[in-house]
Amino acid sequence: MTHASRSGLLPIVAAIALFADCAAVAATAPPIDFIRSATPHENLFAIAFTGQQLVAVGSAGAILKSEDSGVTWKTEVPVPTSLALLGVAITETRTIAVGQKGLIVVRGANESSWTSARSGTTNRLFSVGLNRQGEAVAVGAFGTVLKSTDGGASWSELSPAWKAYMEDGVEPHLYVADVTEDGVITIAGEFGLILHSSTGGASWTLAHKGDESLFALHVREDGTGFAVGQSGTVLRTSDRGATWVALERISTANLLGVHSTSGGHVVVTGMRDMLESGDDGHSWKHIVTSETTTSWYSGVGQADSAGPILIVGHAGQIGRVRP
Predict the structure, then answer these.
(1) Using one digit for the tens of pLDDT, what is the confidence trace for 96-143?
(2) Average pLDDT of every residue of the chain
(3) Residue 69 CA to chain centroid, in angstroms?
């Protein structure tokens, strides 16, 4: 399958744009408190957190920060770029955001401004993972995988030998990058692909492969996790991502984000749909509001173990999901 023939299989930003100006319908009792909204063109694509600190990124280089578990938000001025930022990761000492045209911007906790890092690619970057040791991985279009060992200051190519995992060596679009505190790397994306590396990228293990693209993944410290993607795809793991089981679909929407708590509360964002489980994915319900059924939300996360699950999406909206 050529790159040209795969151009309709998301890139995610193009698919999001299709739903950015949807009309509203009458709402049922909303289980979401919206704490921020902007103009229809000020979209937010990703959110990251550490402790009570959160950062959200979006169109035209938008960066928003909160230091009180998402109660209040401040917009970064000036923005470090006019390009869309599509992924973000944060620790107590460093924040990294990635986006269009291979853009990577970095900021230390005590630094007054953002610094552009040379990525070595012009491919769109969708996601970045970062741990407290300064190990970072960014992924994007056409099989792009980049690694940093110095908190994002410098980057090198880390792409797997795709011929070992893909027919004809097709380079899949990658939408997920995660790095654990002990250095295990997970990447995921097109063709249901999930790859792990416990060797810093020197070798990879295939954990899953399928038909639908995967756009988000979250694995908790207790080993339970979820991956979500095209056409209502939801996968579940109970062994830290070593193996995955597809759950029965209750949605046909493209699902864009997922987060779960240790208490079994799972929230899945998407296009014109949002899902919720209170029992670690054994049963699901739709979160139905005038916003969730007509628009899109992507980034989802939780500031701390006691805080609410937050969502970001169209029109710069930030919402708090009630448990």
Answers:
(1) 999 999 999 999 998 989 999 999 999 999 999 999 999 999 999 999
(2) 91
(3) 19
Query: What average pLDDT score do residues 13-19 get?
Result: 45
Kindly report, residue by residue over 174-197, the tens digit of the pLDDT: 999 999 999 999 999 999 999 999
Ramachandran region, residue 277 (left: φ > 0; alpha: ψ -120 to 50; beta: rest): beta
Strands 85-90 and 94-99, by their bridges, are antiparallel
Tracing tokens 């998402």 back to the chain, one arrives at: 70
d(CA 238, CA 225): 7
C-beta of residue 37 within 8 angstroms of C-beta of residue 25? no
Q: How far apart are CA 275 and CA 285, in angstroms?
A: 6
Round to whole Å and give the CA distance between 224 and 238: 4
- Residue 187: other Cβ atoms inside 10 A: 30
What's the predicted TM-score (pTM) here?
Answer: 0.91
Check whether domain 27-321 has CATH 3.40.50.720, yes or no: no
Task: With a cut of 50, say whether residue 246 has pLDDT above it.
Answer: yes
Q: Give residue limits of the domains in the chain.
A: 27-321
SS (H, E, C) the chain: CCCHHHCCCCCHHHHHHCCCCCCCCCCCCCCEEEEECCCCCCCEEEEEEECCEEEEEEHHHCEEEECCCCCCCEECCCCCCCCCEEEEEECCCEEEEEEHHHCEEEEECCCCCCEECCCCCCCCEEEEEECCCCCEEEEEHHHCEEEECCCCCCCEECCCCHHHCCHHHCCCCEEEEEECCCCCEEEEEHHHCEEEECCCCCCCEEEECCCCCEEEEEECCCCCEEEEEHHHCEEEECCCCCCCEECCCCCCCCEEEEEECCCCCEEEEEECCCEEECCCCCCCEECCCCCCCCCEEEEEEECCCCCCEEEEEHHHCEEEECC
